[in-house]
Design brief:
Layout: H1 8-16, H2 22-31, H3 36-43, E1 46-48, H4 52-69, E2 79-81, H5 88-93, H6 97-112, E3 119-121, H7 127-134, H8 144-150, E4 158-162, E5 165-166, H9 169-177, E6 184-188, E7 191-192, H10 193-196, E8 218-221, H11 228-239, E9 249-252, H12 261-270, E10 277-280, H13 288-291
Parallel strand pairs: 1-2, 2-3, 3-4, 4-6, 5-7, 6-8, 8-9, 9-10
Helix pairs in contact: 2-3, 4-6, 9-11, 11-12
Protein name: F-box domain-containing protein
Amino acid sequence: MPLSELPIELHEHVLDHLHDDPLSLRACSLTHTAWLPIARLHLFWTVRLDTARDCLRFLITLDTTSESDGVGVGSLVRVLTLPAKMGFTQLWRKTQARRARLRLDLLCQLLRRVPNLEILDMTNFEWDCFADLICPQGAGVDLHGAVNTVFAFPQLKVLLLRCIIGRSIKEIIQTIAAFPSVTTLELSGISCIECDRRPHHEPLDIAYDQAMRIRIRELIVGPPDCGEHSMMRVLHALFNLPHGLQLRQLRWRLSRLVDDQELLDKMFHGSARTLEVLEVDSLYVGEYHRQFCISSN
């Protein structure tokens, strides 16, 4: 039987076994026209960009595939890792603002071509300089609209904020709120320029927008490799939202001493009615240590 006459389910079954083998998938995409759509589905499901050059190459791929079939592979991307070496910071420090804006435009063009994104990974993304570029008026301006314009992902479910530097706590909250469809949020190693300039004991003063909605159901708090003070302040701001957080899953992966009674009360007691999963690796917290014994097997 000719290959083209085989049921499509058989083609899919064969290529599904190669989902984690990009070299074989590329070879299959060139073997038969019937295999091209299936191979592309696996090849472009997850895209990791490390540098500005990666962005340029991927944009060329998007343009080329759009010209050949009228659709392109951008609609297939579900998981995207933003580049940690976009060069915003280096260009900004060298006062080469024009080149930095050109790279911003490159990134924006790319993001507009992946509308079906479900997972966005911002590990080590140069957020502070990115924010300066999309909202140069300063940290006091509402960033929600600008972020929502650049990251227009109506189907986004998971947002990973790892090892990023924000200009202010308010902006970090506005950034999270710019993704209303997100239900899973991971925070790890968050630093804040505003926090570094203020005393640790100074209270937060954030004017919350009453229309702001954050519908997180799963919160993952990772190790604070840097900016532990900022991380705690971001968490305080999240749990102080006017409409609160109705968490179903809380994965607390901090192993250091967290002596913040108010924050722990908000997290554990505030979600007591909705919480279904509590994952704790190691927790030693003031009075909580004497009241509870939490162990992980």
